[in-house]
Amino acid sequence: MTLLALETSCDETSAAVVRDGIVLSNVVSSQIKLHEEYGGVVPELAAREHLKNLLPVARAALREAGVSASALEAVAATQGPGLAIALLVGFKAAQAAAFALNKPFIGINHHEAHLYSPWIQRATGASPSPLGRHGSELPSPASGLRPDVRGAPVPSAPHLLTAAFSNFQPNVSLIVSGGHTLLVHVRAELNHCVLGGTIDDAAGECFDKTGKLMGLPYPAGPIIDRLAVQGNPDACDFPRPLLRDANDDFSFSGLKTSVRYFIRDHPDWLEDSQKIRDLCASVQAAIVEVLVKKTIRAAQREGVRCVTASGGVTCNSGLRRELARACQGRGFTLRLADPGLCTDNAAMIGILAERKLLAGVPLSPLNEEVKPGWALA
Ligand code: KG4
Ligand code: ZN
Questions:
Q1: DSSP symbols for 96-143
Q2: Residues with CB under 6 A from ligand 1
Q3: I need a surface site. Which of 24, 168, 197, 360 has the fewest CB within 10 A?
Q4: Do 139 and 145 contact (CB within 8 A), yes or no?
Q5: Contact of 11 with 28, CB cutoff 8 Å
Q6: Angle, CA 66 vertex, CA 65 and CA 71 arms, to 5°
Q7: How far is the CA of 12 from the centre of ligand 2 (A)?
Q8: Which pLDDT score, from 0 to 100, does residue 125 have?
Q9: What's the CA-to-centroid distance between 146 and ligand 1, angstroms?
Q10: How far apart, in whole angstroms, are the C-alpha atoms of residue 196 and residue 55?
Q11: Short-list 330, 331, 307, CA closest to 320
């Protein structure tokens, strides 16, 4: 089945063409620079930017896939959760396309799509992904190349991304992004149950807000990750919220408050480049320890042998390393989303949409509305 998927739930405009489990193209236009000066995503600006970028991004996805609109057999889009006016842009455009092409349409839960992104694999030997969010731009129409994070053009090779569902194993899946922190038991394909989530700030929000307290630009997560490499994670003893609680919920606002008080009491730390690194390493260690221990505990309790992770914070090198270490020690299989698919992208929307259509899940009506608060059940 050849399918076009659109994703506009937050601040990435993305379109992907998927065929028979293969990602033929996955174009992502990030608005990160636009929102940087406001220290967070401004919904109105995000929606205007989606309106401006959606058609060029969708055309680029079709061109890169070598697929004409008339060859599409279905259209999908993120229906929720997300920012209402941002979701509307991609969702209504996808419904209009399905109507014009007279093809099936399906609305997808963004978090459910995240559950399957770790199963989208890069073929061995393929070049690493030109990271989706932090610097990826529209491919140049002439060259089909796009700049990578350092600005150097690298060939886009998304066709080497394939959904590896033949290897599917029941798993516990961690979704960690700027807006969400969720632990989900995925019992089988298209069959899951939410175990827990954050009761206040998300993990990415905690990185971004504590980084802001340190004077780092938005989003601070990737910068904290970089600075933490040369820092001492034991320099400050920050709390590990809800670590000892038996439930699978998370809470990060208390950690943020501890960092606030620490900085208030030790303002000199922000004047010293090594101490900033130590602060970053300590904050990261606290967040990572909670995420890893609670994920592993849930996996053991649910009796699964596989752990997966996706969402922007899954780019964090400390989280990747500690999850790998914890899983290795227990003989668990670990599947981390490809760095290019950790942040928001239409490839994961398309892969899940195709699975659902093949499984006979009911189509979405063309007059259906977006669901900004659509919680994963
Ligand atoms: O999945 P995503 O695009 O979600 C939202 O739009 O909410 O992820 C963005 C989040 C931001 O909070 C960002 O700081 C965080 O992911 N992030 C990281 C890293 N890369 C992105 N956090 C820690 N370390 C990183 N390397
Ligand atoms: Zn997401």
A1: HHHHHHT--EEEEEHHHHHHHGGGEEEPTTPPPP--SSSS--PPPTTT
A2: 10, 133, 177-179, 204, 207-208, 219, 221-222, 225, 311-313, 315-316, 343-344
A3: 360
A4: yes
A5: no
A6: 100
A7: 10
A8: 57
A9: 21
A10: 37
A11: 307
**326-351 pLDDT, tens digit each:** 999 999 999 999 999 999 999 999 99
pLDDT score of 127: 53
Ligand 1 nearest-atom number relative to CA 226: 26
| Mean model confidence pLDDT for the chain | 90
Cα(361) to centroid(ligand 2), Å: 22
For ligand 1, pick from 35, 226, 343 the residue to mutate: most ligand atoms within 8 Å of CB.
343
Q: Are 200 and 181 in contact (CB under 8 A)?
A: no
Q: In the prediction, which pLDDT does 364 show?
A: 97
| CB-proximal residues (5 Å) to ion ligand 2 | 177, 344
Residues listed for the chain: 377
Peptide bond just before 81 cis, omega within 30 deg = yes
- Smallest CA-to-CA distance from 337 within 305, 315, 306 is with 315
Give tens-digit pLDDT for 219-271: 999 999 999 999 999 999 999 999 989 999 999 999 999 999 999 999 999 99
Residue 243 bridge partners (DSSP): none
Closest residue (by CA) to atom 20 of ligand 1? 222
DSSP 217-233: PSS-HHHHHHHHTTS-T
CB burial of residue 285 (10 Å; 0-12, 13-18, 19+): buried
Q: What is the mean pLDDT of residues 124-130?
A: 53
| Structure token digits, residue 264 | 């208030």
**Measured distance CA(295)–CA(88) in Å, rounded:** 33
**Residue 116: burial class (beta carbons within 10 Å; 0-12, 13-18, 19+):** buried
User: Residue 314 CA: which ligand is closest?
Assistant: 1
Q: 57-81: b or e for each residue (b if 16 or more CB lie within 10 Å)?
A: bbebbbbbbebeeeebebbbbbbbb
Distance CA 339, CA 18 (A): 19
